[in-house]
């Protein structure tokens, strides 16, 4: 019988074909989709992270792990999306200027979408001016910024400053997150809220929407 540990191992090994087979078996066996995500796919990336840090895994291998996680996610995603739900609000999310990390952002988007929000994904390496022009075009309720590098976290501040300059800062709530980000960073970059992970980000969005 397929196990969640096998899913994690496939992510570590970058085994796309393997992960697809095992995830399909787990879905057929009625394993809760969020278990497949959290205890299988994300758990695998949590094994990869320290190996990358210690130099035991290199960029191409980490990319393969990320690709494997995404392929597994593709199979699970339809199970947690309720497309008939009316939208709770519009949320725009991007990884800040200079930062190419998108695994956490994509997970976040999946969770937020599945809880009933409409999400506009700006992708990675999003320039300050792009956030502003996209706010003008799409008029979201909430703008989320993700940063995974200490070298890009201050781009959150410059992006908020650009929103002020562009006259859109008071039209949106701004939320932030990512590995180097902490709650006290909210005041530093003049954002409105911080979430540690994808689940708490959904709760944060709900609170923000209630305050609009
Ligand atoms: Co990068 N990388 N990386 N990397 N990478 C880190 C972040 C690092 C901590 C690893 C390390 O050395 N210890 C380190 C940063 C160190 C620092 O800044 N202090 C690092 C580095 C240095 C780099 C490069 C500079 C390496 C190099 O080239 N020399 C380079 C930078 C490229 C760039 O962005 N310009 C780089 C490249 C890469 C890869 C391309 C190989 C790959 C990214 C692939 C991709 O994203 N498509 C990669 C990866 C995978 C990692 C680690 C190993 C894993 C990140 C991840 O996906 N985690 C990471 C180590 C680590 O985090 N411990 C590391 C799984 C994911 C589910 O979690 O992203 O944390 P996470 O997202 C969570 C929360 O943070 C939160 O919710 C998410 C889901 O629960 N969250 C939010 C995230 N955004 C949020 C926004 C919110 C709210 C919550 O509101 C809007």
Strand content: 5-15%
Major β-sheet annotation: 5 strands, parallel
The CATH architecture category of the largest domain equals 3-Layer(aba) Sandwich
| H/E element order | HHHHEHEHEHEHEH
* Strand neighbour order, sheet with most strands: 2-1-3-4-5
Mean pLDDT: 92
* Tally of domains: 2
- Which radius of gyration do the C-alpha atoms yield? 18 Å
* Amino-to-carboxy terminus distance: 48 Å
The structure class reads alpha/beta
Output the CATH topology of the largest domain.
Rossmann fold
Name the bound molecules. Answer: CO-5-methoxybenzimidazolylcobamide
CATH homologous superfamily of the largest domain - what is it?
Answer: Cobalamin-binding domain
Task: Give the strand tally.
Answer: 5
Runs with pLDDT <50, length 5+?
none
Domain B12-binding: 88-212
Protein name: Corrinoid protein MttC19
Family: Belongs to the methylamine corrinoid protein family.
Domain B12-binding N-terminal: 1-88
């Amino acid at each position: 019988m397929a196990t969640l540990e096998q899913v994690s191992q496939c992510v570590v090994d970058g085994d796309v074909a393997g992960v697809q087979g095992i995830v399909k078996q787990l879905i057929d066996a009625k394993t809760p989709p969020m278990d497949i995500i959290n205890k299988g796919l994300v758990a695998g990336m949590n094994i990869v992270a320290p190996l990358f840090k210690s130099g035991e895994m290199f960029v191409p291998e980490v990319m393969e792990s990320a690709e494997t996680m995404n392929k597994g996610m593709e199979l699970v995603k339809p199970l947690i999306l309720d497309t008939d739900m009316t939208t709770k609000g519009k949320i725009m999310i991007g990884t800040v200027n200079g930062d190419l990390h998108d695994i956490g952002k994509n997970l976040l988007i999946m969770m937020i979408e599945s809880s009933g929000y409409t999400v506009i994904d700006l992708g990675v390496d999003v320039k300050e001016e792009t956030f502003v022009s996209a706010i003008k075009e799409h008029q979201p309720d909430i703008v989320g910024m993700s940063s995974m590098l200490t070298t890009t976290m201050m781009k959150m501040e410059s992006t908020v400053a650009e929103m002020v300059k562009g006259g859109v800062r008071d039209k949106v709530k701004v939320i932030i997150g990512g590995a180097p980000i902490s709650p006290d960073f909210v005041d530093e970059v003049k954002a409105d809220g911080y979430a540690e992970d994808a689940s708490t980000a959904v709760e944060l969005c709900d609170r923000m929407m209630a305050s609009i």
